[in-house]
# Entry
Amino acid sequence: MTGDTLSPAPRTQAPTVRPRPWTTFRAWAFEVPALQVLVVAALAAWLVITIPAVANPRSITSILVITSLLALAAMGQTLVVILGGLDLAAPGYILFGAFMAANVAGKLGVPPVVALLITVLACGGIGALIGWICHRFAVQPLVVTLGTGAAITGATLFLADGDYSSAPPEALRSLASLRGTTLGLPFPPIILIVLLCGAGMWLFLNRTAAGRRFYATGINFRAARLARVRTAAVWTMVFAASGALAGVAGIFIASFGAGWSQTIGEPYLFSGLAAVLVGGSIFGSIRGSYTRTLLGALTLTLLSTIIVSNGLTEAQSRIVFGVIILAVVSLYGRERHVRDRF
Amino acid sequence: MNRVLPLFQRWPFAFAFLLALVLLVLNLIVSPSFLSPARLPGTLATLAPFVLVGFASTPSILAGGIDISVGPLATFINCLFVAILIPAGLGNWDLAAPIILAVAAGIGALNGILVAVLRLHPVVATTGMLFLLVGLSLTIAQNPVAAPNNWTEVFAGGIGVVPGALLTIGVAGLIWFALRRTAFVSNLLATGESDVSAYGSGVNIKAIRILAYTLGGLFAGIAGIALTAIVQSSQSSLASTYALLGLAAAVLGGTSLAGGRGGLLGALFGAVSIYLLQQLLTASGVAPSLIQFAYGAVLVVGVVLGATLLAPRLKRNAS
# Structure
């Protein structure tokens, strides 16, 4: 091959291969969550046309608050999914956060900031331990997080000692209640918090070296290690972040509902995963991002609003969720054929 | 110690077996009547759904995938039988059993097609299926429907001296035993170990994967029957309880999530260990919340032990 450089070029005029418009369009459509934006716009239009009454500030606020809670709960899961794992401990973290908000900050009167700090430290610490164990012993995060989740749930219920009637203090409830205001504007601060988180996450993932190292570890663990990325640190940090974020989400979920129960975290495990998947983040993929999860959470909330307001039940919205996950992922989450992986 | 470790490394289920044995002895110390003939059929019937959901999780894990929809599939089968088949007059065993098993195997096969043909990530495909099945169960029977007298009661009690639960577990075990005589299980393990090598050696990995998920579905169908036997009503709310229990049983039993290592015996001992642990702590009067804590801790410790001390060492290079 190299000898050919001396002989005259066989093709005198190298045709500049211009990619066909369809190819560039398809690459672009996979690169940015264009489909998700389109789906959200279509669903919003459908909702407003079929039920005009929904277009008042109060309904819109409530849809956005529910979306924010789901997006906050799915934030850590997004990171773990991009890393190629799955965090099944999320219900445990959420339960612990709710416990801290209701029983510790509410009943015992501990300042909310201290409760928040304890939650972040406890859940983050447990998460860091999970990440380190999974990396050190090369075990699948699936089972370790499953076991840890059960252990956290059990420990939290033991600490709560049967008291599920406490409510978070007013300071926390005003953050997530529908009547809350942000800097004088008529929407609760949670929406702004989640939007800021989204912007921060985008900056971190796309504009910092740590974000790039994180993607590199998710896409190819061995290649990242050979490129001197400290994969142990990446795994520990990501699982710690997942734990801390889910714990914080638990505080807000309890504040929104003005109370908690033993099963407060369970719906958010699979719904959070659904938000990640519908957004288009796939296990160990460069295309995953938190922006996609925000869109996914909005899609799911709009969809379940449409389904419930059309007289169908919560159960039927589960069926639609299932079909949508399969449809979205088979559109662009498919894996390579074995013969291409030799 | 030097002689014990290789034993563990050779038999993946040895750890779960020992754990189950120790827990059984402890159980007998705490409540000596634990294995009395009067209590045995009931105990085994409560145990059967755990074991069968563990069985159902195993083939897909061995094939290098994972199926988190087997637990909801078992509760879906329970709702289908109690809330649809019995009211429709299809409740007799000669009609209902084939329908139930066909539906369960069909849903398993659908999972297999999603994973092997459409090439979706197994977690994603089965999560979608989990949503579908939970939604369907809730649509069929939002609230528990009591079942009239039916043939599944046999599996909760006994036939003569034989506890009925041995039949449900035994049928699944026999199917696996028969399959072990064929090339299927070897090909399954080869696919799980390295699908690229298996494909290169001419194994039809698509068919193997679809069959593995179908087998998981079939076992989940039997689990649904065993579940109906003890609850005798439709319990759509049990889906989330069983969703991850089978996975825990299989993995505690030494089945590697990376695929290619483990078997049904491991799932059996794993499920028995989890059940005996709960029994032991309940009998000693420990709070339910701490039982859950202990279950989680045992799971984590078991998995880490299995991955480090008890895993087969990679052979060092001769250099």
Residues 216 and 224 of chain A are 6 Å apart (CA to CA). DSSP finds 15 helices and no strands in chain A.
